[in-house]
């Protein structure tokens, strides 16, 4: 109704039906002069439900204060349960301004803000995971026996493939290292080589098993799914074949690969808890 407060953004929008309650009302019979004769029908109002979130306020404030007015996002997940302890996107705005109606001028300021403050970057920002993808890549290499924990691969300053040098971030390279050192030192050239052994489709299969490429299912609207590239994806989306040089880029989380901060946090929670991929939980109880 006209003066009702309505959830327009975030968790309040997702659970507006549970939070807003039910209006009450009376149907009254009156005479020709408008005098009340009797109550024909009456329905009592019911308050909306109380909702408790999984958010830990100290963690949430610490994340928010760390980002302040920068453009970014922060997510913290309890690995043993999938409970979201913090989820922050900055810069932000006061969503209360939307709940009772907003002027055209204020709305124009929101939607034209160059830093896109209406975007919840934690669930809608899609970015190349870059070196944070390397532990997922390592799990694929170990599971597929492309390497063992003791296998040593020379990881120099560059890896030459098909007449092109693919450089490492470390100018002097890392030398002969195993997969553990490759993760610790974030070696690019190590994972270029194991990525070629695995192939893009195997990398894609393991990335998807960690939750990349699909929505996590968190109780928020408009979550993005990110992108896990594969040879079939490229053929369908772009009408082109896959090249092994592109596998090298994907091996270190670059190229076409995209992930949301929430997906990445959830993947790392999966590693931390020993292998269980939970649906992130934002609502503790209603």
Radius of gyration: 26 Å
Largest sheet at a glance? 2 strands, antiparallel
Strand fraction band? 15-25%
Structure class: alpha+beta
Approximate helicity band: 25-40%
Principal-axis shape equals: elongated
Structural overview:
It is elongated, with a radius of gyration of 26 Å. The chain has helices spanning 10-14, 16-19, 57-67, 96-99, 104-112, 121-124, 134-143, 179-184, 188-198, 200-209, 231-238, 244-251, 261-272; strands at residues 25-30, 36-43, 52-53, 72-77, 84-90, 153-155, 158-161, 164-167, 175-177, 283-285. By secondary structure, the chain is of the alpha+beta class. A hairpin with a 2-residue loop joins strand 7 and strand 8. The model has no long low-confidence stretch (mean pLDDT 94).
Which helices and strands occur, and which strands form pairs?
Layout: H1 10-14, H2 16-19, E1 25-30, E2 36-43, E3 52-53, H3 57-67, E4 72-77, E5 84-90, H4 96-99, H5 104-112, H6 121-124, H7 134-143, E6 153-155, E7 158-161, E8 164-167, E9 175-177, H8 179-184, H9 188-198, H10 200-209, H11 231-238, H12 244-251, H13 261-272, E10 283-285
Antiparallel strand pairs: 1-2, 3-10, 4-5, 6-9, 7-8
Helix pairs in contact: 7-9, 7-10, 9-12
């Amino acid at each position: 109704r006209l003066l009702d407060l309505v959830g327009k953004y975030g968790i309040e929008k997702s659970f507006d039906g549970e939070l807003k309650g039910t209006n009450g009302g009376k149907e009254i019979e009156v005479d020709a002069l408008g005098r009340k004769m009797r109550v024909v029908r009456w329905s009592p109002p019911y308050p909306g439900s109380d909702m408790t979130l999984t958010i830990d306020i100290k963690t949430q404030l610490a994340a928010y204060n760390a980002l302040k007015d920068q453009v970014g996002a922060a997510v913290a997940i309890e690995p043993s349960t999938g409970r979201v302890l913090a989820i922050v996107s900055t810069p932000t705005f006061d969503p209360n301004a939307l709940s009772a109606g907003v002027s055209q001028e204020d709305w124009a300021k929101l939607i034209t803000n160059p830093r896109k403050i209406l975007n919840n970057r934690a669930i809608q920002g899609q970015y190349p995971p870059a070196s944070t993808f390397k532990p997922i890549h390592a799990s694929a290499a170990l599971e597929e026996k492309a390497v063992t924990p003791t296998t040593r691969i020379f990881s120099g300053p560059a890896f030459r493939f098909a007449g092109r040098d693919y450089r490492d971030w470390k100018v002097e390279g890392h030398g002969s290292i195993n997969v553990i050192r490759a993760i610790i030192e974030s070696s690019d050239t190590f994972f270029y080589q194991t990525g070629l052994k695995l192939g893009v489709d195997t990398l894609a299969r393991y990335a998807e098993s960690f939750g990349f490429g699909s929505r996590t299912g968190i109780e928020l609207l408009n979550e993005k799914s990110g992108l896990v590239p594969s040879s079939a994806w490229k053929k369908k989306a772009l009408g082109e074949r896959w090249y092994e040089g592109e596998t090298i880029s994907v091996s270190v989380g670059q190229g076409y690969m995209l992930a949301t901060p929430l997906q990445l946090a959830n993947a790392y929670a999966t590693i931390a808890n020993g292998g269980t991929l939970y649906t992130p939980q934002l609502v503790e109880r209603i």
